[in-house]
Amino acid sequence: MKLMIRKNNNGALMAYVPKKDLEVAITESEKPELWGGVVTLANGWRLELPEMPGDTRLPITIEARRLEG
């Protein structure tokens, strides 16, 4: 699924899913650099993000995979 990741005014990471018109905070990240791991959104969704360099600039639109469970 397409996913846009950005930082809000407070510096918190936010995820926007255009197809669902849904914007929620990223509450947990499996890896400190975010990329190539699994993140958890405030609504409970778990998404696998692609591998990217740690210094990737935000905002960015990526292809993420939603994990079940």
Automatic annotation (TrEMBL):
Gene Ontology terms: biological process: nitrogen fixation
Pfam families from the UniProt entry: NifT
Name by which UniProt lists this protein: Putative nitrogen fixation protein NifT
Origin: domain of life: Bacteria
Entry-linked Gene3D superfamilies: NifT/FixU-like (2.40.50.240)
